[in-house]
Amino acid sequence: MNIGSSLVFSAKSPHNERGLIFLDTELGNYTKRTHPDFTLHEGMEYKFYCPVCHFKLNKADNPNLVKVYMSDDTGKEFEINISNIIGEHCTYKIQEKKVEAFGPDAEKYRKYLDLPPEYLKYL
Question: What is the CA angle 44-70-68, rounded to 5?
């Protein structure tokens, strides 16, 4: 789902508008690009899908979070959770027992992460 320095998602609005969203892979960078014909609406919740297999990426326990996996330069894998509400800046990086929160809206979803309670204190 990477193209250059962008994560690529297929997205659908509540009004059934569909298109691709390109998000920067740098955590905490909320730059996004779309095709000019696909307009994103601030505050609107979108469903995110894999652009290849169309697997739904919104989490079951909180559909406002999207879960993907990334890897660092050494090949070590980690989980990323991002908000699917346009304009909401919220990202979590979960790797082993360490959780990093990014963005001014990160506090909003702390309780919904798939973490044992003893790990929530690291947020």
Answer: 35
DSSP state for residue 25 in the 8-state scheme: S
Judge contact between 24 and 6, C-beta under 8 A. Answer: yes
- Tokens found for residue 110: 């702390």
Residue 98: exposure state from Cβ atoms within 10 A (0-12, 13-18, ≥19) = exposed
* Contacts (Cβ under 8 Å, ≥6 apart) of 14: 44, 45
In sequence order, what are the beta bridge partners of 23?
Answer: 7, 32
pLDDT in tens, 50-102: 999 999 998 887 788 899 998 888 888 999 999 999 999 999 998 887 888 99
3-state secondary structure of 65: strand
* Cα 56 to Cα 75: distance, rounded to the nearest angstrom: 25
What H or E segment, with its residue span, contains residue 118?
helix 117-120
CA distance 55 to 76: 23
